[in-house]
Amino acid sequence: MPYFVFRFGPDRKPVLVDTFEKYKDAKDACRNLRRQESPDDPNGIRMAFAKTEHDAKRLLAEKREPSSPLEEWEA
User: Fold this and answer.
1) Alpha-carbon span 23 to 13, nearest angstrom
2) Domain spans of the chain, in order of start
3) Which residues contact 23 (CB under 8 A, 6 or more apart)?
């Protein structure tokens, strides 16, 4: 399954930037894009691992429950 990298604009809708087969390539792309475009907003660039672009967008749109009390405290 590929890794999808998305950019989120002011309207908070995901726009596909690129697709990668390897996690390291996708992670490096996210880091570079965050440095260049959104250093103050780390959620401006996000990555998802899914079968299709549609599934990746759905995963990013879902509200996740915290998996631990620490994560809940940080939210």
Assistant:
1) 23
2) 3-74
3) 3, 49
pTM > 0.90: yes or no: no
30 and 47 in contact (C-beta within 8 Å)? yes
Listed residue (61, 54, 48) closest to 12, CA to CA: 61
pLDDT tens-digit map of 12-30? 889 999 999 999 999 999 9
Rounded-to-5 percentages of helix, strand, coil across the chain: 45, 25, 30
- Three-class DSSP category at 19: strand
Query: Which two three-digit tokens encode residue 8?
Result: 């989120």
Chain centroid to Cα 59, Å, comes to 9
